[in-house]
Amino acid sequence: MKTKFLNLFLINLVVLFLITGFIPSNMKTNSPPPGKYKCFYDFTVKTIDGKDFPLSKLKGKNVMVVNTASECGNTPQYKTLQKLYESVDTSKFQIIAFPANNFAQQEPGTNQEIKEFCKKNYGVTFPVMAKVSVCNYIYSSGALDTTKAIKTTTDEIYQWLTRKSLNGVLDTKIQWNFQKFLIDENGNLMGTLPPKISDEILLLKEWFGVN
Asked: Residues 145-158: pLDDT tens digits?
């Protein structure tokens, strides 16, 4: 059964790569060397209510991490993410959103305003964390021109997600709001999906644990 699941997963990864541009880690050596790098579970983040959330609570689950914004053309993806969340076995899979204001300042609100927006407009029930910075700049336009951007610093969890020197797997430049990162049940980075990918994520429904 495990081999059958793995084969289905690998087939879906190939299909997803061809259709969406999924950037995977090296699937043959999926895990970084033990002990050399931190894993996803080693971090503690803040919930949107300001409480500590140790990511170690998610041990044994596959996780999709998404940087979100309330005033973006991709914002309706909240609806897709919520639909996916309602269809999965949450003992096996979790979605975590990190609101961020790095791209055209499309997440200007406070944490409380973001929380109310997500609930009122999309009925979001998956965990939304406190607002973070997902890269070193606040860009003024889609051109991602650093000469016209405001310098800032990347939050620790996104440093890990985007830097191979920290995650042992992959360097990633976040393209815009709603970039997705896939984390396996051992807390290792598996790959990333571009911001425009939405309904296509269901190609990985076995991995998500869709009922």
From this structure: 999 999 999 999 99
CATH superfamily label, 2-208:
Glutaredoxin (3.40.30.10)
Q: Where are the domains of the chain?
A: 2-208
Query: For residues 142-164, b (16+ Cβ closer than 10 Å) or e, as one string?
Result: eebeeeebeeeebbebbbbbbee
**pLDDT 10s digits, 84-123:** 999 889 999 999 999 999 999 999 999 999 999 999 999 9
What is the four-CA torsion angle of 210, 122, 141, 172, rounded to 10 degrees?
-20
User: Does 72 qualify as catalytic in the annotation?
Assistant: yes
Q: In b/e form, how buried is each residue of 41-59, taking b as 16+ CB within 10 angstroms? A: bebebbebeeeebebeebe
Question: Which pTM value belongs to this model?
Answer: 0.85
> Do residues 14 and 8 make contact, with C-beta atoms less than 8 angstroms apart?
no
